[in-house]
Amino acid sequence: MSGPNNAIEIIPNKLYWISDRAPPRNQPNSYYFCIDNELVYQPFYLDFGPLNIGMTYKFCTELERLTRNPSYSAYKIYHFTSLLPNKRANAAYLMGAFQILVLNKTADEAWQPFASLPPFEGFRDAGGTNCPYRCSILNCLRGLEKAIKLGWFDMATFNVKDYEFYEKVENGDWNWIIPGKMLAFACPSPTQIDQQGFRVWTPEDYVPLFKQIGITAVVRLNNKTYEAERFTRNGIRHYDLYFLDGSVPSNEILTEFLRIAEREPGGLAVHCKAGLGRTGTLIGIYAMKHFRFRAEDFIGYIRLCRPGSVLGPQQQFLCDMQDRVFSWGDELRNENELATGISKLNVRDSNNEEQKTPMSPEDKFIMMHGDKGQAERLVNAKKSNQNSPVTSPFVPKEKVSAQNRANSTSPDTKKVKAGLSIFDKSPVRHTTPNSTRISNVKKPGFLR
């Protein structure tokens, strides 16, 4: 391998990743870029990643353009990141995702170059407890790989502009987790302006959107804050499956949720207070049963789609439930295969290792008794991160088209590219013996 000794090679003689105090100096025909301060995770508490799927898309799209730009054909390109554990972990995730999405590698192949480096910090949950569970970068990459195989994410059709629009509190705060089947969203407000003066969505705001994207039912997991009739009178069924904030669902709740999901002909919109913990946990159970999605990898995947999802004891709960839920799915598939004579899913998975992390006493208590106020803290943190103004602009319902939604297959590529402006300010450090030769070249978005 040529180049600095502490750099790892991603594309031979072309693309490298390096973490250090500063970029190496005096490397001939080398170009360095750093996005540590441009693609920034917005924490709820002590969480620091992974960077969401929108940021992942932007990074991969722009880096692919750079590596294929003939103006840079003579240059070795370095993705530089600092030694700060949080920045280092997110930068490694991004380069791993690039290898999966652009270079068509498996998650394990993408991670192999990083395996020999000093250990990376594992991603922690968004809760306020001292939770020992950590989601590894490899879990996130495996989750992304699985989602691609299942058709849940496609670089060619992903609409980054819509993803960034609808994830905001004032624009509905919702995300597809299983496109077409499972949507996670925050609890609808009884009024369009909440107690803090923020613009939020009511059931009536969600109804036209839900009808356009094929949602046939809503499942509420938190306390009643609005009348279910506001959905049902508009033709959307509504179910209540309450369990304590921060806790894990009972067997009865699990059984009923799966029954509802399997009975509904269309998509299911699931919410708790923040649409993160209880919501992510039940959607995870469905994904594990129907798609044999490993618990640890699902936690990584859902946090790419909806940062902050699955909290505290809910993480280990999903891991502990994995074998049991897999068996439920295997039984269902066996029944279907006997009836149809067709095998619909390869249920064998070579990555069967599970993380057995002992729960802290605090998490054990929360698992049984809940974490009162956690959801409210998460909602307030998201509002603060997004700096939602009191008079937030709101897109009228009639302007929310079927095309204008996250994970859509919109043919409007100009719309997709418009979401890449975050890179326009990104700093880049480069060293080359002939800097004037490259100074007049039009740089990709994140190098301007």
Automatic annotation (TrEMBL):
Listed Polar residues bias regions: 401-411, 429-439
Source organism superkingdom: Eukaryota
Which GO biological-process labels does this protein carry?
Answer: cell division
Family annotation (InterPro entries): CDC14_C (IPR044506), DSPn (IPR029260), Dual-sp_phosphatase_cat-dom (IPR000340), Prot-tyrosine_phosphatase-like (IPR029021), PTP (IPR050561), Tyr_Pase_AS (IPR016130), Tyr_Pase_cat (IPR003595), Tyr_Pase_dom (IPR000387)
Does the entry feature the keyword Cell division, yes or no? yes
GO MF, any single term: protein tyrosine phosphatase activity
**Alphabetic keyword roster:** Cell cycle, Cell division, Hydrolase, Protein phosphatase
In the Enzyme Commission scheme, what number(s) does this protein have?
3.1.3.48
Q: Where is this region: Disordered?
A: 383-448
Q: Which residues form the Tyrosine specific protein phosphatases domain?
A: 255-317
Please list the residue ranges annotated as the Tyrosine-protein phosphatase domain.
173-330
Write down the Pfam families for this protein, in alphabetical order: DSPc, DSPn
Into which family does the record put it?
Belongs to the protein-tyrosine phosphatase family. Non-receptor class CDC14 subfamily.
By what name is this protein known? protein-tyrosine-phosphatase
